[in-house]
Amino acid sequence: MNAQGTETPLDRAASAQTQAAQTQAVRTWAAPSGTASSGNGLATAAMILGITGLATSVVFIGGPLAVIGLILGIAALLTAKRTGVGRGKAVTALVTSSLAIVVSALVAVLVLWYANQTQACYQPDSFHQYTQCVREHLD
């Protein structure tokens, strides 16, 4: 402003620059696009459960995790159809959860088969007798 209190073109330009700088500062502090808040959280959770279930499926923990991951994966896929976000994660969750369930089932079957085949060997006097008994029953 000049001495008479009126705004000059230079004052308007400076005011516009100040507003542009403030707008830029607000954009810098705003959440970037593509963060978890705008994504499909179900798909992310299902994918993590599916991968964890697959990694732990040989110790029986993976089976229940994979079942939960499969349920969340189906829900995430339905959400992805509606919103268009997270389809890849949902499909990954479905695949890894399904594989984890299959691996867990195979491990359970193998453990039960082994226990059935070596049932007579569970009361040995020594570890050597146990291993000898197991060899006899599995051959």
List the helices and strands and how they pair.
Layout: H1 9-29, H2 41-55, H3 62-83, H4 87-117, H5 127-138
Helix pairs in contact: 2-3, 2-4, 3-4
Produce a short descriptive summary.
This protein is mainly alpha-helical and 139 residues long. 73% of the residues lie in helices and 0% in strands. Helix 2 packs parallel to helix 4.
How would you describe the overall organization of this protein?
By secondary structure, the protein is mostly helical. The protein folds into two domains: 1-30; 41-138. Helices cover 73% and strands 0% of the residues. It is built from five helices and no strands. The protein has helices at 9-29, 41-55, 62-83, 87-117, 127-138. The model has no long low-confidence stretch (mean pLDDT 81).
Keywords:
73% helix; mainly alpha; 5 helices; transmembrane helix
Instruction: Assign a percent range to the helix content.
Output: over 70%
Tally the helices.
Answer: 5
What would you call the structural class?
Answer: mainly alpha
Number of domains: 2
Low-confidence stretches: none
- Rounded mean pLDDT is 81
Strand percentage, roughly? under 5%
Q: What is the straight-line distance between the termini?
A: 101 Å
Principal-axes shape call:
rod-shaped
Major sheet, described briefly?
none
Helix and strand string, N-terminal first? Answer: HHHHH
Q: Oligomeric form of this entry?
A: single chain
Whole-number radius of gyration? Answer: 31 Å
Number of strands: 0
